[in-house]
Amino acid sequence: MESTEYEEGLSPDEAGQRLATEGPNALPASARGGAWALVREAVTQPMFLLLTGGALLYLLLGDAREGALLATMVLLTVAIDLYQEGKSERALEALRELSSPKATVLRNGQWELIDSREVVRGDLCLLREGDRVPADGVLVRAEGMAVDESLLTGESETVAKSTQPCTAVQALLQGAVGPAGGQDTPYAFSGTTVVQGHGLLRVTAIGPASHIGRIGAALSDVGRGRSPLERQVGRLITVFATAGAAVSVFLVAYYRGTGGSWLDSLLAGIALALSLLPEEFALVLAVFPALGAWRLARVNVLTRRLSAIETLGTTSVLCVDKTGTLTENRMSVAALLADGEMLRVNEATDALPEPYHRLLEFALLASPADSAEPMDKAVQRLGQRALRATEHLHPEWTQAAEFGMTAGMRAVSHAWVGDPEGSAAVGAKGAPEAIIDLCHLPADERDRVLAQVDALAAEGLRVLAVATAAYDGPPWPSEAHAFDFSLLGLVGFADPLRPGIAAATAECQRAGIRVVMITGDYPATARHIARDAGLGDSEPVTGDELAALAPAALAERLRTTNVCARVAPEQKLAIVQSLRASGEVVTMTGDGVNDAPALRAAHVGVAMGQRGTDVARQAASLVLLDDQFSSIVAGVRLGRHIFANMRKAMIYIVSVHVPTAGMALLPVLLGWPIFLYPVHIVFLELLIAPTCALAFENEPPERDLMREKPRRPDAPLLGPGALAYGFAQGVVVLLTVLLAYGWAVRHLEPSQARAFGFCALVLADVGLIFSNRSRSRTSIGAMFTPNPIAWAVCVAACAILALAVLVPFLAELFYFGPVPLAALGTACAIGASSVLWFDLLKLARRGARRLGLAG
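The structure assignment produced for this chain is given below.
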């Protein structure tokens, strides 16, 4: 590649041509196989197999019309399942598209942020700390760069990078050997992570042609085990299915033994098995998290692991960064302090008194011009305005050495050379205590400076100190302590709180969620911001305290404060572990490479989408697309909402299966005509499935959703109280329909009695929808709560019921006889009246909940 290509990069046309020719920069997807895979999954479900068996029995031993009707309804049921599964898959695919990693590439001389799948061979990619390497390539520039290659090698040690050739790695790119473990290698590999420094990568292999592609590794989320919720529901399904199989065999034998035909015996047994098979549980677990993730994306929270949704609503402690999450991360210089004198400045300041020129000059020299750091940008803005007509700007100087920030030195230093034979000017800026240490100030001078820092910090300003030194290098020293620094003064930065922060924290407090602010800021600054944000006025715990405290003492200390100040990113892990050990459910935010362990250790890790690194995003369960605290609170609220709606759907499933199973079994045991055949079960399934997957998922939130304490993370979705409530609802419907059918059997023909009882059953099931839609409202009140899908399902069910009862051809296929309209109206009224009993049950459940007895 010629040097001009380094300067301009690829043209859009050339990049597009290579993308079309060589394909996207992506590994083969581990997709489910598209529509055919969904069809195969649907037709192997027990429900489908049982219904198909019933249809074949009709066709072989009964009426061909009845078999054709049942087969048609089976296909309709499968179509509904496919639509719901497809909707979930589309929602997840949209989220996968949204969460695709990004890459910064040079195109036509301009840096562009693109989807990493659009990276092509020959692209020049900018790599920075925290970035994931998008493709295999050669480093044409590497500044202090180190890469984590454990994904390929399994070695935890990072690998230093340079632009010098390495024979071993050259062989690697040719496919001869595995990744080299040596240092100073000039190649970077797809999927590895930059943990230090920055560089430029010329792409040589993409997608399947990359090293990780050739060895068949997967960069997407590793397959996970079943969540606690899935295991719980799996046990419920197993219990129901086992009981259904046993009782169905008994029913077939019993009915045949009492003189019933084999056809009726088998059909009654299939109907009972279908009525006891709660396949909707699995449907709810598939649809709700997928659509919930889509809803979370609409409030700027991207879900990387669906299991996080059920945990998000249980959050009891929310640990958040100050800068950029509570505040706007829009820094501006607000104060300069030099020679003990304070000067207030703002974005309109365009000139400074002479005593402040050197302070700002060396603050500029310690702040890279191309930095994305908000404080660096604020210094650059003020310096370019206020020093433009002075000799304190040095565009002709060359940076000769850089000493970056480390865990032990919270300051950066840059050495600049004006002419090859002149001495270097060194500028340093950083935490006041770090600069004081570099300047080796005596105790009294140190105390005086720290008092000035406290005064600025008490106003909520973030404070940096600035120092200067002269040096006759090269050679350059290995650390900044080798320079003889002199303190120039302090710079105070204002970073306003985001709008609505106080309201959001108040909402958390009402919901029983404690907000803990974690920051690297000076304690007085952190305390002021916390007070303004509504977090109280507790004494901050500092990073030094945190390091010195034993685990038990730290846990106690964290119970008494909502502010952690002067905390290094790697200390976040200790905070998470301490809170978890205290029984808290922790949601933690983070954006940097060093935040990754804490994000992974938290129950729910939330990475910043705008300013976060790829390392943080890969470690997190959720990604905050707008970096706003209010979006986190909205996510917690929505997590509670999703879980509440799942619980409503599950209770409805339990309650609706009780009368269905009871009416498939009890009439036979009582010697009455068979009430339910498979065709009736399919009809009810057409009502139940969309109700569970669509109507309840679309239910608006309860009014007191964020006024309750977080539920326990180990609390089951269906506790004993919830199961008892659902079962009690079902028993009410069962008794109502059984009495209605018993009366009809004595006064009407069997086919007419079946139509009478079935109308009562369907209207009672519709009443169950409204009874379970709202926990805090009565069934009548729920009718006035907006949910168009619930109404659409109910209206459709009633319309199809009317056709099945009133159209002679359909009535015959449903084993219905002609019933006077007045009698049908009476049956519907009997079924609908069940809602009154449901509301009495709801009042009883509220009382039980107040006593702590309901689940």
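Interim note for the steering committee: Confidence is low (pLDDT under 50) at residues 1-5, 166-184, 217-225. The longest helix spans residues 629-669.
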